[in-house]
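[Q] Does anyone have a clean structure-token version of this?
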Amino acid sequence: MSEQTVLVTGTSTGIGLEIALGCARAGWRTVATMRDLGRADRLRAAADAAGVADLIDVRRLDVTDADSAATAVAETVAAYGRLDAVVNNAGAGHVGTLEQETVEDVRAVMEVNFFGVLHVSRAALPHLRASRGRLVSVTSVGGVVGQPFNEAYCAAKFAVEGFMESLAPVAAGVGVTVAVVEPGPVASEFVANIDIDRDRALEQAGVYAPALRAYLDRSGRTFAAAQSPADAATVVVAVVTGPTPAPRTQTSTTAREFVRVKLADLAGTAVIDLTGGWLR
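[A] Here you go.
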């Protein structure tokens, strides 16, 4: 088959669902993957409504399982003969702070948000070399700017950014374009899916309770007025299907201005002053 093919992870809801729809609307054969196929109905209904159901192939992929990633990539290439792009979108949020969580908690965040990206990317790279394709990872402004009570999540996203920035010139030498896309706040199920009981968390926060309360209050206001998943996905789809993208792209003016603070802050004081203000 001659259609360009993209594999997208984490497509059951939110940005991932909209990326899958957007790639299909652009005429790309889209392998939309998710850990639980029991959650595929929403994507399938949206694909039907958009008239792109024939271009979307829903498959299972658990990014924390290297064998699952390898199987999904191999089956995609077997079915369609090629792989032109991968979008590492699957991820999980986490709220917590070091003194009150275990190393195992942090490892779990890293498994999904960092090692999951590596499992899929490693399996895909030989096929992306063959097609001179694109490896795109949806990170976050939290991959550039450390944020209070997001230590593990930001660490994982920082790791993805550092890995992909380091990989980019190496991959370019064999014909693969590597890019990251950094959303700011997005009004999706991502936040709702963060496993936190606010009242219980505050009760157990001890000396951190006032700061955590201020952070959660601010987060609620921020995400209530956030960018839509569809708008964020439009930027990702352009990185996949458009002209050769920049190594780093933000999905909104808000995201760009937030990242700009860090990239211009050699001493780190502007970032700490900014994020410290969220806790008062």
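[Q] Thanks! Anything notable?
[A] The first strand starts at residue 5 and ends at 8.
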